[in-house]
Amino acid sequence: MKYDFDTVISRRDTDSLKWDVGKDELPMWVADMDFMAAPEIRSDLQERLAHGVFGYSVVPDRWYRAVSGWWESRHQFKMEKEWLMFCTGVVPALSSAVRSLTKPGDKVLIQTPVYNIFFHSIENNGRTVLENPLLYDGGSYSVDFADLEEKLADPKTALMILCNPHNPAGKIWDRQTLARIGSLAAAYHVPVLSDEIHCDLTDPGKDYIPFASVSDECRNNSVTCIAPTKAFNLAGLHTAAVCIPDPALRKTVSRGLNADEAAEPNALAIPAAISAFTRGGDWLDALREYLFKNKQAVRAFLESFLPEITLVPSEATYLLWLDCRAICADTDPLQKFLRKETGLYVSGGSQYGRAGAPFLRMNIACPRRMLDDGLARLRTGIDQYRLLS
Questions:
Q1: Which contiguous run of DSSP H or E holds residue 241?
Q2: Could you report the per-residue pLDDT of 330-357, keeping only the tens digit for each?
Q3: Is 262:229 a contact under the CB 8 Å cutoff?
Q4: Of 188, 223, 296, 310, most Cβ neighbours within 10 A?
Q5: Per-residue pLDDT tens for 277-319?
Q6: Bridge partner list, 360
Q7: Which of 224, 271, 231 is nearest to 43 (CA)?
Q8: Which contiguous run of DSSP H or E holds residue 311?
Q9: ω before 165 within 30° of 0 (cis)?
């Protein structure tokens, strides 16, 4: 293999959020990867570091070309330069857009179970979370459109946040589903804020569909948040983009991003993003193959040793959603037990909404040896937990 994903790299004592844990603990929770960034990106950053001067930065034309070129070649969606704005991260963009596009007391609609920071971005800004729970049939998720329309029709609903692909379920929304969401949102004059940060982490042979690419209704009523940070493991560099085709919507969000001081790049954010989107394709494709094999390994392990846990089928992200309903109705005690007794640190499902309570989220973006260790700990912990139940 041209790229090395098997070497275990110690991240302890590096001020890592993920690895700020006990010496015998194995963190498989927060969404960053235990792989080095692509050598092409590291080389470009080393060249920038060698310059030695790190003053204030601007966003150059080559950044716009890199972002637009990547989406056109990888996702068949051409973004015009004027649609794009640099942002220090998808989460800052989400929170800023909530403030810009809604008023205190307004309702913001989300489809649960979903990324827990959505709740924080809404509630911390004095807005109200309005849940459109996804339908789960024991094998996959789908949208409850009757409930969605009812809640979009609520005059207090001022914004919808879409997760595309979906975190934690790993669902790639199909064109028909996205078009229907877009049509309903437009009919009730509710802008759609689409978080597409995981879009490049699809299974081999699978492609995601940008929400704004689906129809005129979707394009003209959308704010799309994108970044190289998940796919290329660059979260600590704080680099993202916001794509807004509609001029009026763009003006409102842009004003908010600048007022929040979330639109100023640091000296490494721009070159890292340019490098990822112009030189990172081969590395990313190799990574996707590796992650898919990890996913297959987890599925085989569960079927052989923990058949009471079901791996929810997914097509994107390196975050696995484990259905533990045969073991418990709420995984919070289980999650704490696993960490205390085995050192395995995964995420309890309730933080993603009430519908997530009987699930665990597990990050498998790590070398296979580390994954095998995590699975062994999971098996040991579940066996012990069942004896106590």
A1: strand 240-243
A2: 999 999 999 999 999 999 999 999 999 9
A3: no
A4: 223
A5: 999 999 999 999 999 999 999 999 999 999 999 999 999 999 9
A6: 322, 348
A7: 271
A8: strand 310-311
A9: yes
Tokens (6 digits) for 353: 């909404």
Q: Which residue has the tokens 């302890």?
A: 12
Q: Which two tokens stand for residue 243?
A: 């794509």
**What is the chain's mean pLDDT, rounded?**
97
Q: How far apart are CA 239 and CA 139, in angstroms?
A: 35
Contact 249, 223 (CB under 8 A): yes
Tell me which of 3.40.50.2000, 3.40.50.720, 3.90.1150.10, 3.30.1360.120 is the CATH number of domain 26-38+281-388: 3.90.1150.10
Q: Which residues contact 193 (CB under 8 A, 6 or more apart)?
A: 94, 97, 98, 101, 159, 160, 161, 162, 222, 223, 225
- CA atoms of 350 and 329, how far apart (whole Å): 10
Tokens, residue 346: 């995964």
Residue type, 118: F
Q: Which tokens go with 223?
A: 């704010």
φ/ψ of 291, rounded to 5, equals -65, -35
Q: What is the pTM of this model?
A: 0.97
> What values do phi and psi take at 342, rounded to 5?
-120, -15
Q: State the CB neighbour count (10 A cutoff) for residue 372.
A: 14
- Please report which confidence band the pLDDT of residue 388 belongs to, taking 50, 70 and 90 as the band edges: confident
Overall CATH class of domain 42-279: alpha beta
